[in-house]
Amino acid sequence: xEPAFDVTEVFxxxxxxxxxxxxxxxxxxxxxxxxxxxxxxGQWLVPHxxxxxxxLRDRRLGRTYLHRFSHEEFGRTPPPAAHEPFHTLxxxxxxxxxxxxxxxxxxxxxxxxxxxxxxxxxxxxxxxADRLVRxxxxxxxxxxxxxxxxPLPVAVIxxxxxxxxxxxxxxxxxxxxxxxxxxxxxxEETAARAVRASLEFTAYLRELIAVRRxxxxxxxxxxxxxxxxxxxxxxxxxxxSTCVLLLNAGHEATVNxxxxxxxxxxxxxxxxxxxxxDPVGLVPGAVEELLRxxxxxxxxxxxxxxxxxxxxxxxxxxxxxxxxxGAANHDPAVFARPAELDLTRRDxxxxxxxxxxxxxxxxxxxxxxxxxxxTALLRRAPRLTLAAEPRRSPGFVIRGLQELxxxx
Length: 408
Hints:
Elements: H1 7-10, H2 16-20, H3 23-32, E1 36-38, E2 43-46, H4 49-55, E3 61-62, H5 84-91, H6 101-112, H7 115-120, H8 122-138, E4 142-143, H9 144-149, H10 151-161, H11 171-179, H12 188-214, H13 220-226, E5 228-229, E6 232-233, H14 236-266, H15 269-277, H16 279-293, E7 299-304, E8 308-310, E9 313-315, E10 320-324, H17 325-328, H18 363-380, E11 385-386, E12 391-392, E13 401-403, E14 405-407
Parallel strand pairs: 2-10
Antiparallel strand pairs: 1-2, 3-7, 4-14, 5-6, 7-10, 8-9, 11-14, 12-13
Helix pairs in contact: 5-12, 5-14, 6-13, 8-18, 10-14, 11-12, 11-14, 12-14, 14-16, 14-18, 15-16, 16-18
């Protein structure tokens, strides 16, 4: 890494221009080295696919450090007391836990979140996707995000959890408020919204869990209540945090992969024409390529629990790595012509669903949802066009569009 390289001139997540298209900046980061210290957040940026893939599996790193150290021992300041409801909710979900607690919770969740459970949802997912698209077409078009991309995964996760239809409009606003905390430097206003949503969502799920204890059903919450391993079940807080995680992770990525993907297709008429000509043959590969091409989760963080060395640079215990998924998914060392959208790409080891013990448990469901909406739109709206240039969501970590106006 050349000393003259100023990472802050290249990596600018607060800049609308950078957020609009971070991929050229990623190319400069990769060319300049394998790891870069980013002073504004104190993180170490990792832009290469080989490093990101390896570090996601490296047990010297962790999503948390509290299983080994206190905040003070780790050289970190505890979060403000006012943020506690958010952290209680977030820190009991398996995404932010390490072994042995992570192992126990993931195994218990897997008992209720089986491949058979997911596959049984296929008729519901495909029928719902088809209905949403039919309604969009009947209305002469509209916002693809609000009309198809958002309601499909929210309804599917809510159906899995057994949340009554009348309550489902509450879910997306709660999720959006909570996910605001995953940006690099959330404001106090963002934190206040996340805390309020955490309290409301927790109270709602506590009541629903109480009902399911008395009247179990075929839903996932009933399955989580019934799941045991070695005589141990999930605590109520673990159940609540698991449900919120499944909702947040289960639809944020799907929503943004859908709108990012269609925006990419509209900008590449040749690829869109090929997809329309052979949807059966190309949709499965298209789902993977669209997840790679414009990655819905751009950055994933890991704490350094023991000193590690990357390309001769020692990253000390107590530091935080920012694994750049978007940069890894455009690494020319792994992907031929990475800046090109290629729906026929065969070798596509993207990291959009993470890797290692925190690999996305909902990846099969996300793929099913993306395939269902893509297929329905190709069939019901074969001449779908972009009606207006979209507005990019302001956040960097969770990459999406505020709206995607289309005409059938």
